[in-house]
């Protein structure tokens, strides 16, 4: 058991209002320099939709993340191996182009003041921030599909609908079923990051004391394999400096006990951050699990911070008691492990992302019938009101499973049963329009007690600042060395920083 601590996050999607305040906060602090105009370390997408960059989820095109070699039984980068990297080192055919992002622009505002006198009103033409030339047309932007989740242009090209039936596509396109929800995205700071493995210069590393993935600007040689290797496309190339850059999770703020800027500024208070304790020895097993077991395998790697054996193992690794206590109070541990409500984004990429999402109830709970939202009765299935709405949702469980559970609909169904059970419990307590028998039935089906439903409601709807952000100072002076540890003279084994064990003599 190799217990380590990791800063982890939860985004509650039912609370996101799509205001982009998080994006603006990040942009103002980190990416307002030359060469970063198109970078959005934090962005908010509309789903169903194509995302940013366009169709970033299509790994047949971008080849990010990991795949399980069925023949050899090994985990390998989807991008390429060592020799493939060497062959393509001067040309990477899987990079997104500037058109997949957008060509950043500003306007020639000065022309409004300097234009000669004439009969026409002078205009401020669009100017490329990369070339400095006038642009005839503007065709895309970082949130070009904002609020257009039901449109045939964006929703129909969502990679998660590639396996959808004609009925699913038709339902999304119907004007009375048009639906969308917001999906904020930052770097997931994965346990098994593809960007780290893809970098031929070894410029990307994972800090052992908090798990934050960073890029050394001194070591970066602009090979840009990290951009392809990251399946979430959260590594960017600065065309001005010739270096790659990415979200740093505002680690200067974390080291002083403050949450990242996007968390602090979130209007909907959808963001939670805290420490979790995980067993680094289980990472390889979790990343190599069958597709339908990836979520459960990642949950298993996250350990119980109240377990005496886990606490003892954490102390042996130099984790201070302040971090153990923070892990015990972590909202992430509660959402991910204790309640099983938060799910990773695309676990099928096998990077073990440490940013989790509570799926939205909005697209699920009702549909239009005769011009009005129908009231769902218990029906023949014997389910409590609202629970029966799952099979009539405006966005199918298959779509949500493609996003959050590698296609395992049972896991998503369990999450929705819990979310609905909490809602039914609170309706029975406050509105009192459901019977106690229906409340008990819903809680039993979801596997929750009344006290758990109350706790979920409070952490979702009424959390204090201190309950949402449980961030102790990172104590870098006591950090475990992650990349180049001492070699055990008995086993001759060394840690690579991801919990994997290898013979140092085989390194190249």
Q: Residue-averaged pLDDT, rounded?
A: 86
CATH architecture verdict of the domain at 15-91 and 143-263: 2-Layer Sandwich
- Helix fraction bin: 25-40%
What is the multimeric organization of the chains shown? single chain
The CATH class of the domain at 15-91 and 143-263: Alpha Beta
Give the CA-CA distance, first to last residue: 27 Å
Query: How does the overall form come out from the CA principal axes?
Result: globular
* Count of distinct strands: 19
Residue stretches low in confidence (pLDDT < 50, at least 5 long) are: 375-380, 480-508
Q: Would you kindly provide a written description of the structure presented here, covering whatever features stand out?
A:
29% of the residues lie in helices and 14% in strands. By secondary structure, the protein is an alpha+beta fold. Among the domains are: 15-91 and 143-263, Alpha-Beta Plaits (2-Layer Sandwich); 103-138, no CATH class. The strands form eight sheets. It has a five-stranded mixed β-sheet with strand order 13-14-1-12-17. A two-stranded antiparallel ribbon has the order 2-7. It has a two-stranded antiparallel ribbon with strand order 3-4. Strand 10 (235-238) and strand 11 form a beta hairpin. Helix 16 packs antiparallel against helix 17 (436-446). 46% of the residues are buried.
Defining traits:
14% strand, 19 helices, 508 residues, alpha+beta, two-stranded antiparallel ribbon
